[in-house]
Amino acid sequence: MTAQLNPRGDVAVLVPAAGAGVRLGPGAPKALRPLAGEPLLVHAVRRVAAASSVHTIVVAAPATEVEAVRALLAPVAPVTVVPGGAERQASVAAALAAVPAGPEIVLVHDAARALTPPGLIESVAAAVRDGHDAVIPVLPVVDTVKEVDAAERVLGTVDRPALRAVQTPQGFRRSVLLAAHRSAGDALTDDAGLVEKQGIAVTCVPGSELALKITRPFDLSLAEHLLSTGA
Asked: Which of 102-116, 141-155, 182-196 has the lowest mean pLDDT?
């Protein structure tokens, strides 16, 4: 059954999904790799569509797979699919340009975070709605982190209490994200990083263990296990 988005919602979600995903090994583009019998992208879009304030979803697909991705997602939710770029930043910019008039909150979400709970999507959107220009979900860093040089010699221990692991979706006022992309110089893999370069404060909200990024074969196995337990 196709999910229905909220025509009165104020949130657009961009899903850059054109990456190759080389760390997952050879095969289809990462967003189209199977997880428990369905592509990662299908899982991700289904959970985004379940968030109650989402008005629009735009997916940036591999340029050669646009029609296939459109057909793949048609039974899941009403989704706009555009060709992505060679770099993530170009894919986000292409998706952002396709957002219709209306939504003033824009979230950027990784298809590789296929198990992200709808509640986290709503939490990020709510923080932007409450007046923050840019919002990222984060988790505390639990491992000890060392700074090393090119020869792998330890230079020192990083102060862990001040560190956070960043997840997606990252949320922005639409005008803030538009301005950041228009001013972008060097390509970054993190939209909050573009906004930081504009001198705009980025606010953190609690993330979710379920919003893990599926990057390596181990991550895929873990996600399959989580799905089998009802995640």
From this structure: 182-196
- The one-letter amino acid code at 173 reads R
State the sign of the Cα–Cα–Cα–Cα dihedral 15, 213, 116, 105.
negative
CB-based contact 123:203 (threshold 8 Å) = no
**Tokens representing 33?**
């790799």
User: How much is the pTM?
Assistant: 0.93
149-178 per-position pLDDT tens digit: 999 999 999 999 999 999 999 999 999 999
Q: Give CA–CA dist 28/132, Å, rounded.
A: 37
